[in-house]
Amino acid sequence: MSSESDSDKRAPCPDASAGRPDFDQLWKALAPHVRAAVSRHRSRDVALAADDLVQEVRIRVWTVYSGDRNSRFKTSYYYKVVNSAIIDSLRSHRGTLAHSVRTESDGEEDEPALIERLGGEEQGPDSVFDEQQRRARLLEAIRQLPAGRRRAVTLFLQGFTVPEIADLLGCDRNRAHNLAYRGVRALKQLMGTDK
Amino acid sequence: MKKFQDRYSPMFRDATCGATHDAGHCPPAELLADLAAGRAWPWRRRRLVEHLSHCSHCADDYRVLTTARDGLVSALEDRCRDDEGVRPGWLSAGLASAAALVVVALSVSVLVTTDGPSRGPEQGVLFASQFEPAPRAVRSQSPSERVFTSDFGETEGSVQLFRDDFDG
């Protein structure tokens, strides 16, 4: 998506005459936060770069903004629009890993280095089997946990921090920490590894 | 605990990657946005959290939203304040004068309806005090008009309840 086409869309901006700040002003305030958000999403299977995602969000916000001639939409509505646009963009570009790898390698990495890197990541059948065994033990152990600890531990394993878990579970940090800590301890015992 | 997370988190996330996403069971973006903004109902929050714990895609999406949350809210609120700042000044003065006009019109209509303060019975207004005598008027009735006369020794002018007139 080129910047020319986007600026063409923004050209007939009727908002300056309506006495409210124009879209560029609004987007200037929103863009750094949108960029920071999509940059945090480091999932390998999102094909597009952060700039493309930011651009898609910008078009979505512009569509809503151009229909909001009388400033009927409130802050919470724009907040929802921005969030929905971010999530929809991420979801729509998920699952195109091959394109992502090709795009990155075209610009930065030469072919021998790429082959060496891919070859180094390859696992033998033994390690694959061990990995599968450990994964099965982990999932089985998680299933045996009480509901509260299971929820805290699975969130912890999804990468959430204790304050985030407390926020999600709607409890204080001490309780979230206790649930996660005791859940992890129980998991270690169930899996037979106390490391 | 951190070591455990580093070791088993990738394994768990691989196991839950796309487990529900392809089946179309993931919540819509609006619900995740509500959860990130703290506006989800408790029952919905429980369901969403249960889903996040078993779907690494949605967990990532939620993390993205929480990253942007505070900055977006403050930026949008600043923009809202800007909108209020550019509102024309004559608008508030016009609203105030319109409100004053409404108050004056209501006052005039009340005066016209009630025809101002009352000027006496000649205008056709009758008061209850004309039909019910005051307590002093009751006391000034003649003794012959009294039904009962008291003999408990009350002084003249006080209320007499009984009069013994049975020849005994």
What does this structure look like?
The complex is a heterodimer of chains A (195) and B (168). Chain A has 195 residues and is mainly α. Chain A is built from ten helices and no strands. Chain B has 168 residues and is mostly helical. Chain B is built from six helices and no strands. In chain B, helix 2 crosses helix 4. The termini of chain B are far apart.
Keyword list:
heterodimer, A: mainly alpha, 0% strand, B: 168 residues, mainly alpha
How large, in whole angstroms, is the Cα Rg of chain B?
43 Å
Largest interface: A-B, 57 and 55 residues
Oligomer: heterodimer
Give the termini distance of chain A in whole angstroms.
50 Å
Low-confidence regions of chain B: none
Share in β-strands of chain A: under 5%
Class by alpha and beta content of chain B:
mainly alpha
- What is the H/E string of chain A? HHHHHHHHHH
- How many helix segments of chain B? 6
| Average pLDDT score of chain A | 74
State the end-to-end CA separation of chain B: 111 Å
Compute the number of helices of chain A.
Answer: 10
The coarse silhouette of chain B is elongated
Number of DSSP strands of chain A? 0
Proportion of β residues of chain B? under 5%
Biggest sheet layout of chain A: none
Number of strands of chain B: 0
List the helices and strands and how they pair.
The complex is a heterodimer of chains A (195) and B (168).
Chain A lengths: L2 H8 L12 H18 L9 H18 L7 H18 L4 H12 L2 H11 L3 H19 L3 H11 L4 H8 L3 H19 L4
Helix pairs in contact in A: 2-3, 3-4, 7-10, 8-10, 9-10
Chain B lengths: L1 H15 L12 H9 L4 H11 L3 H30 L3 H26 L20 H5 L29
Helix pairs in contact in B: 2-4
What would you say about this model in short?
The complex is a heterodimer of chains A (195) and B (168). By secondary structure, chain A is mostly helical. Chain A has helices at 3-10, 23-40, 50-67, 75-92, 97-108, 111-121, 125-143, 147-157, 162-169, 173-191.
